[in-house]
Design goal:
8-stranded mixed beta sheet, alpha/beta, 7-stranded mixed beta sheet, 2 domains, Metallo-beta-lactamase, Chain A, 368 residues, 12 helices
Length: 368
C-alpha cells in the first residue's frame, strides 16, 4: 500500500533521510533560507549526488564506529577544492579518528585554495577545536578550547543544535535540532492595541527581523491620525503584537544503551520533539542482544515514545539480521495515539554489482 505523502511541520528545516531501514543512518537537514545543509552521521554516502554533498557545511557525528564515520573521506573528496571550510562536531576522540582517516591518503598535490576541515570535540564541560588545513596536506592543528554553556553546540539565525553525551560502551552524542522563532503577528493583539493589518507589518519585519535601519515603520491605526505616526521603537512594538507560536524540533538518537542514566538524559534533551529519529536495532524477542550490545529494541522504543511524546517517529538502523523480517519492526511498535510512525524501505543504497552483471562485457570479443 502506498503511503500518503506527508509534509512535516517545519518552517526553516527540510529533513531527508538518505538511508533505508537497514542502511547506515544518514539524516540530511537542509536549512531552506540558507540553502545549506547539516548532516547527522556519515557512514556510506557514495550513493549521494555530488550537489547534495556539496550543500553540506556542518556534520554531526554520534560516534566513531565505521557505519557512522566511514563517509568522511568521500565528503573530503567532494569538498577539498573549495575554499569554504567544513565543520565536524563529534564526541571525545573524534579529531584523532578523523586525522587517521585523512593520513591514510597522500596529499602531495594539495593546492593553496583547498578547504580546511574544522573538528570540534564535545565533552561534558568543554568543546575542543582542531583544524586540518587542506593547503598543508591536512596537517593537524589544535585551535584551543572553550567551556560549554548549556547544551547548545551550534547555531545560526534559523536553527540551533543541542547535544547530550550518552553511553554505548563508549561516549556517543545525541542531538536535538531546534528551529528558532519566526516573525509572526497575533491578530488579536493587533486589535487590542488599536492597530490594523497593512503594509507597515512588512516594514516592521524588515526592521526587527532583517535589521534594515533604513526602513520606516508607520503603524496603521484604527483611528486615523492626520499625518501618520512613525514608530521609534519597532522592537517594543513587535514584542507587543508578536504571536507566540511553538517551534518545531528534531531529535536524533542512535546507538545507545537502555540504562537509567541514558534514559534520564534522553528525556531532558528530547522531550516533545516534533520528529524523533531513533535507533531500533532489535526486535523485542532479542532484548538480551540489545542489552549486550547497548542498542535499543522495539519495547525500549515503545517506552521511550511514551516518555518523549514525539509527533512523528522514524525508527532506523535495524540490525541486518532481520533482512527478511523488517515488517515485524513496525508491527511491534506501539507508540502513543498522537505519534505517527514513518516507515522506511529496507534499503536506499543501491545493490552491489554481482559478477554476472558484468561478465557479458568481460567476455566480449567485439571491438568497435
Amino acid at each position: 500500500m502506498l503511503q500518503k505523502k506527508r509534509r512535516l511541520p517545519f518552517r526553516y528545516l527540510e529533513p531527508a533521510f538518505f538511508a533505508g531501514l537497514l542502511d547506515d543512518p544518514l539524516l540530511f537537514l537542509r536549512i531552506r533560507p540558507l540553502r545549506r545543509a547539516l548532516l547527522f552521521d556519515c557512514g556510506q554516502i557514495t550513493h549521494l549526488a555530488k550537489r547534495v554533498v556539496k550543500a553540506i557545511d556542518t556534520v554531526f557525528i554520534t560516534h566513531a564506529h565505521m557505519d557512522h564515520i566511514m563517509g568522511i573521506p568521500t565528503l573530503v573528496r567532494h569538498h577539498h577544492a573549495s575554499p569554504r571550510p567544513l565543520d565536524i562536531f563529534g564526541p571525545p576522540g573524534i579529531a584523532e579518528r578523523i586525522y587517521h582517516l585523512l593520513m591514510g591518503y597522500d596529499w602531495n598535490l594539495s593546492e593553496p585554495n583547498w578547504f580546511t576541515l574544522r573538528v570540534h570535540e564535545v565533552t561534558q564541560e568543554q568543546i575542543f577545536h582542531f583544524s586540518f588545513a587542506g593547503p598543508e596536506g591536512f596537517a593537524s592543528h589544535f585551535d584551543g578550547q572553550e567551556p560549554r554553556r548549556g547544551r547548545e553546540i551550534w547555531s545560526c539565525r534559523y536553527a540551533a543544535v543541542e547535544a547530550e553525551l550518552l553511553d554505548h560502551k563508549l561516549t556517543v552524542l545525541a542531538f536535538r535540532i531546534q528551529e528558532k522563532p519566526h516573525f509572526a503577528v497575533d491578530p488579536r493583539l493587533l486589535e487590542q492595541h488599536g492597530l490594523l493589518p497593512g503594509d507597515w507589518i512588512r516594514e516592521l519585519k524588515k526592521r526587527v527581523w532583517k535589521r534594515s535601519a533604513e526602513t520606516r515603520v508607520v503603524p496603521r491605526r484604527a483611528a486615523e491620525i492626520p499625518h501618520g505616526e512613525t514608530l521609534d521603537d519597532p522592537d517594543r512594538l513587535y514584542a507587543a503584537i508578536r504571536a507566540d507560536l511553538p517551534c518545531s524540533s528534531i531529535g536524533y538518537l542512535c546507538d545507545v544503551g537502555w540504562t537509567a542514566e541514558n534514559i534520564a538524559r534522553i528525556e531532558k534533551l528530547l522531550s516533545k520533539v516534533t520528529l524523533l529519529c531513533a535507533d531500533c536495532s532489535f526486535l523485542a524477542a532479542d532484548v538480551e542482544k540489545a542489552r549486550n550490545s547497548y542498542h535499543l529494541c522495539t519495547s525500549d522504543l515503545n517506552d521511550l515514545t511514551l516518555r518523549l511524546a514525539p509527533r512523528y517517529l522514524l525508527p532506523m538502523h535495524l540490525s541486518k539480521s532481520y533482512l527478511y523480517r523488517t515488517a515485524d519492526l513496525y508491527q511491534e511498535l506501539q507508540p502513543p495515539r498522537e505519534t505517527t510512525v514513518l516507515a522506511l524501505p529496507k534499503h536506499l543504497v543501491p545493490a552491489p554489482l554481482m559478477v554476472q552483471d558484468v561478465e557479458g562485457w568481460l567476455r566480449s570479443t567485439d571491438v568497435e
